[in-house]
């Protein structure tokens, strides 16, 4: 899943979860203090006198949400440093490997994948064409650690459980008991997200019902609107458009019915068209920005994994846009309890999410 600047660096906070190779990954690389290896010359890894960031995304990089946040972070940071960004969105999974090779041929210093769906690109990191590149990869359980990449991940059940809890607080205030969840393909991660979201709602509203619709496409606005309309007809009072490019179309329709709405990854509490009631922040751009800062300082190590924790790190997090002081405090306490492990997320999701 999923998702600003984190105050916690990718290298300095390796205590959460880190693995490292026993020797430098490339000639001239140096060992990082907290594990992994730092490519020689970072950030000018290929030594051509300039820094170029290459970004590949499986989604619409103009979706005003999850996928765009990743590219926006790269471009904002690169501009501040006088770097160049080469970007490509809507990369088919089947074309991931060739797309990565093409970036390396353009002499990029860092290959950044916008989401783990493009994991098939990773073997290019071991090929001669990409020899002098660093790699940033958003992680999921099916992405193996290798010496040539840095993995960045979170635990999506944490943010989705907290999103459901926040939704439950607003539903409780209005006396609502029926909610909707609209997403794209029925994949493992989207099924798990719906399950965790439901568990969060039911922890506040025990008799709540969640209607989940899989449209098969994160970016198809027509399908998303059709799903939202069907859910409105079934009496939902809240809808979570857990989508990409179709987010705004789905939310605008939900707004017409005065439904409670949530964001899929970014802070849009200030948005007026459409409007959102809860911002669920797990934007990859938040994590990527921290990685780029380390890259600029020559401290971004390959061969390590960083796991971002809700209730511990600044991101992921959840906020109620116009919540009461009591609602805000309850949500803050809930997230802190997740961070301290007072709340067992896995057990809670299994207990209430089925």
From TrEMBL:
Keywords from the UniProt entry: Cell membrane, Lipoprotein, Membrane, Signal
Organism, as annotated: Phytohabitans rumicis
Region of interest called Disordered, as start-end residue ranges on this chain: 19-44
Biased composition (Low complexity): 19-37
One matching Pfam family: Bmp
Principal location listed in the UniProt entry: membrane
Protein name as it appears in the record: ABC transporter substrate-binding protein PnrA-like domain-containing protein
Cited PANTHER family: ABC TRANSPORTER GUANOSINE-BINDING PROTEIN NUPN, TRANSCRIPTIONAL ACTIVATOR PROTEIN MED
């Amino acid at each position: 899943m999923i998702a600003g600047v984190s105050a916690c660096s990718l290298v300095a906070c390796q205590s959460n979860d880190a693995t490292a190779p026993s020797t430098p990954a490339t000639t001239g690389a140096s060992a990082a203090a907290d594990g992994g290896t730092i490519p020689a010359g970072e950030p000018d890894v290929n030594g051509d006198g300039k820094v170029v960031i290459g970004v590949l995304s499986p989604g619409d990089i103009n979706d005003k949400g999850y996928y765009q946040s990743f590219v926006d972070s790269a471009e904002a940071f690169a501009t501040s440093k006088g770097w160049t960004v080469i970007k490509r969105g809507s990369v088919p999974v089947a074309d991931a490997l060739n797309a990565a090779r093409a970036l390396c041929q353009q002499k990029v210093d860092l290959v950044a994948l916008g989401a783990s769906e493009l994991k098939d690109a990773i073997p290019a990191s071991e090929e001669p064409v990409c020899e002098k590149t660093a790699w940033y990869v958003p992680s999921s359980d099916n992405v193996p650690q290798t010496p040539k990449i840095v993995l960045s991940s979170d635990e999506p059940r944490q943010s989705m459980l907290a999103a459901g809890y926040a939704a439950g607080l607003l539903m409780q205030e209005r006396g609502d008991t029926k909610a909707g969840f609209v997403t794209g393909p029925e994949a493992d991660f989207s099924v798990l997200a719906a399950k965790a979201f439901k568990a969060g709602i039911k922890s506040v509203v025990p008799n709540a019902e969640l209607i989940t619709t899989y449209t098969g496409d994160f970016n198809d606005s027509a399908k998303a609107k059709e799903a939202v309309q069907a859910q409105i007809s079934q009496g939902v009072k809240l809808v979570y458009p857990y989508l990409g490019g179709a987010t705004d179309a789905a939310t605008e329709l939900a707004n017409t019915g005065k439904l409670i709405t949530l964001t899929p990854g970014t802070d849009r509490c200030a948005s007026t068209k459409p409007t959102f009631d809860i911002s669920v922040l797990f934007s990859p751009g938040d994590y990527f920005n921290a990685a780029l800062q380390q890259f600029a300082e020559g401290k971004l190590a390959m061969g390590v994994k960083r796991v971002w924790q809700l209730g511990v790190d600044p991101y992921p997090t959840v906020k109620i846009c116009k919540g009461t002081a009591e609602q805000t405090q309850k949500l803050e306490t809930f997230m802190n309890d997740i961070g301290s492990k007072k709340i067992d997320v896995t057990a809670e999701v299994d207990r209430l999410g089925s």
